[in-house]
Amino acid sequence: MKRIDQILAYIADCTKKLSEEALLAGDGITAEEIAAHQEMLRNNVSKELNSLLRADLIIKIKGRPVKFLHKQVIEETFRVQLKEKQIEVNSIKELMLPGEQVDPFHTLIGFMGSMRNQVEQGKAAILYPPKGLHTLIVGQTGVGKTMFARLMYNYGKHMKRFPEQAPFIVFNCADYYNNPQLLLSHIFGHVKGAFTGADQEKAGLVEKADGGILFLDEIHRLPPEGQEMIFYFMDTHSYNKLGESERKRNANVLLIGATTEDPGSSLLKTFIRRIPITINIPNFQERTMEERLMILKHLFTNEAHRVNKSLRVEAEVVKALIGSVTYGNIGQLKSSIQLVCAKGFLNSIHENQEEIELDFKILPGNIREGLFNIGRNRKEMDEMSGIISHLYVTPEGSKGDDEEDASEPPFNLYKLIEDKIELLKEEGFDDGYINKFITTDVNIHIKGFYNRFYNIKGGRDRILKIVDKEILDFSEEVQAMLEKELKRNYSKRFVYAFSLHMSSFLKRIREKKYVVKQMYKPVDDKDEEHRLALIIKDMIESYFGISVPDAEITYVAILLRSVEEEHQGNVGIIVAAHGNSTATSIVDVVNNLLGSSYISAVDMPLDVSPREVLEIIVEKVKSIDNGRGVLLLVDMGSLLNLEATIMERVGVKVRTIDMVSTPLTLEAVRKASIFDMDVEGIYQSLKDFRGYNNGTAIVKAEADSNRVIVTVCSSGKGAAVKLKEFVEKIVYDLTEERVLVVPVKVRELDKVVKDLRTKHTILAVVGVKRSSDPHVPFIPLEQLIEASGEQALRELLLNNHFPIVPAEESVVVRDICENTLKEFMTYLNPHKILGMLMKFIQKLEEELEFNFNYALQVQIAVHMAHALERMVIHDGLVYRGDVNLFDQRLLVAVNYSCEIFVSGINLVLTEDEKYYICEMLSEEYIGIA
After folding, report:
1. What is the CATH number of the domain that holds 266?
2. Same domain, yes or no: 756 and 790
3. Sheet order of strands, 761-767 included
4. 706-733: pLDDT as tens digits
């Protein structure tokens, strides 16, 4: 079969396996998946896909990544005939419902599966003449009752049952459970003098919901008198406010209640009889495996959008998360995913990664248990194995479409902080970790909010629809105070975030709902943020005439700490190239891919004089500079000479890189916008850039001996030479590039470093003394002989653009073990057995969630080699200690890891030999268990 036919057949097979719901949700097959499954080169796959599209055999779903579907299979699945040729659409929905709005229920995962009956009930409740049917939604915590009610509301608008501006009012009956009078006042309103404190007449929720839907969550918390008033309103559509004797008021309201309880035991029978439709929402475990996976993908997509990073999720993590869901259902899964993504996000920051990697090690213990929960159900495990693989989720094109709390502003500092603290506290994290995560998370929310409201025309007017002008004006006063105190500028991002926080704060104070769920100490009393928060507290009390609780100081301090100081803008980028449209073509491609507004093109026809070109570039620099400098990307070295002239004339810092290309421009824009780097940082990181390799920017390191590592020991040059050999061995195994290692005495260190720097780049000093030159990195000798030393050298080489050979185990440990095994092994091949021993150690570390030091790794490897030889001659040790003293988890980890030798060389260790391994690890394990 030809390559193109193989690809077409694979796409057809994959398209058939996708449900209608998955297809409508945007699933498809990527070029990367095809290349991996068919073992073809990615470029060849892309070429054939373009041919198949031109032949009108497949459909292209635009986005990032691009996906493909088999056209004929789509026609058969949806029973349609697609007349368009070479179809490229954003969604299959465009083909299914041309020119029509999509049914809102189509966004519900399971609308054609486990939720099909519920969707039909919801639609019937909305459309039933003349005004719909009151409905009760029943389901466990976290199944999505509120979301289903909102979908009913959206469906009503879609079918013109409600006008577009019809209200959807949400009320949680538990909020006033202990105060029936206040609860009824809230629902039906009250007249002046109805009770102590009723100084003026107030509209109730029923009045506000007139013409729309009133959603009563936790309706079982309504007291009997409240239920009676509600069912009378259902019967007559009339009501009276608290303090009125006659029911003279009318409202057209569709009531939707939600409860986690059995309606028969928690609600009055007279009340239940007036609710003709009861919709039972299935729990997470009652959903099909495909639906559970779709829900998980959807939640991961929301997180990728929030943090603006791609997520790479191991298959074992997917299984564990799905298996960990118990009583909390989708709400619990959402919290678990946020926690796992929070850990991965912090790791990506620490390790400077562009994407978030989520592996099994990162999971907390309670989520890990989910994998074993699934393992107990063989049928479920088999079903899962057939459809679950690793996930790769990108933020591009995704939407964080979780419903916001309709009763709160879009940025709610209390909700952000309280939810996260509770989650992280439960997982045992200390205040330092929580503080780091909270401040980062709040800043992400502020950025997301700001992008939604300010980066559009009339941003301030939109904010004023949410907060009072008085609050916004006060927030601007706070901004002025901060700028004066800190001698730096705060942007509108802070002003709007602070104004929304003030709106939430004042609302809590007015409604006497200022309750702190759980607090920790995020800032020291002597920190600058705490001092400024105290000033803001005084300003609030003076401006609004209220008393500010002490806990509010903490929230304001967190907000101040979270908001990053704003830069004036991104680095400007100019592409200048000879030809009529060369530069414009490059810039167009970059703009289409990244949507940048900080890049400009200068085309230079050959008949234009250098003087004219200079004037054009000077004007471009003036117009594109945002105060952070301009990067000039040019096609010929002669343009490099313009840099000094431009800076002199314009007064703007300009850096120039030649050999411009599309990949080079993409990297420059990415670093300027996504990583917010300055012009010098971008220049330094790109000056040796030569293109992409396997999706990663690879810089070719210098192949000569211009790069040097200096080794230094206190016992003289002889010891430094030994250290030199040790470092050379590690570097040789880490990279194929040549690095010169120079041994020196302690007394000669500074002189040698100074001399070397005239002709060489010194990568680091390794040994017992740091160089007096502050620009030279230092790796202490004690660090080198621990596991972190090798990692330090690896990172050092990576930062200096050396291509690194991937290694799963320690170079140092492998070297020591290899020499040792050669000396005593009689029956087994040392070279063959060494790889298995390294994998055994790695597996043990993964199972015990602990990294062994070098000494213990060597000890384990040598002991295991002896044990395997004893198995060959059937002369195993007999363990005479008390095996009951061993931790059960330790025994499981050793048993599981020993399977490597069974599958690799068909040697099975006796239980006694395993007990000796446990004994060796017990002392170490006590410290980590």
Report:
1. 3.40.50.300
2. yes
3. 740-745, 707-713, 761-767, 778-780
4. 788 888 764 444 455 656 767 777 777 6
